[in-house]
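Problem 12. The chain below contains 227 residues. Write out its predicted structure in token notation.
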Amino acid sequence: MMAKVLGFFASVFLIGLASTVSASEVDMTNPYTMVQQVADNTFKRVTKDQNKIELDKEHLRVIVEEELLPYIDYKYAAYRVLGSHIQKVRNIEDKEEKRQAIEHIRTFIDVFKSYLVATYAGVFTQYTDQKVEFEPARDADGDKIAIVKTKIIEAGKPDIKIDFKVRRDSNGEWRAFDMMAEGISLLDAKQSELHGILRQQGIERVIELLDKKSKLPVQFRGDDGNA
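Solution.
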């Protein structure tokens, strides 16, 4: 069930990013225009590279890495997923044990990034041109966290309200790190999924599971015989 929820969130994340703007460069100083421009550039790339995608579905990973990933704060998201585990590592007194624990966190971040790439690559196969409405841009000067609200509209289905959380870094650039669909956070859901495994089997087991998922081939709907 959790996997289905996360898959839905990932789908809505990309749908929510979908918009039409003319600029090819991304304004990372404004969280609202950043979200819309990243979406436009990404979907234009998908359209442009359709021949490559038809020959090799794994090319979708390249598109995600080049067009989408630079605007996702995956490191911050990874820390949020690990939650209290980060504090436990900080409290380790033995130097060698702490060094190994820090290396595990670094490995987790790398694997989590690959997992996100694989997830969003698969989501691109499910987009069907739903309509998106964005709330008007607001003044985010002085804020470190901003929420970009959208509404997903599809004929015959209830509207879905989505909040995208974006974070300003020390360079003044905004990147997305989480989203909330009908009040439920993507990061909170992922943390809940992994928390028990992390506590009972350790971070190495979590890394192993995410690494395995990240290496699964990209599949279009229907590749496995299902719609």
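Discussion. Residues 1-6, 15-23 have pLDDT under 50 and may be disordered. Students who got a different answer should revisit the alignment rule from Section 12.3.
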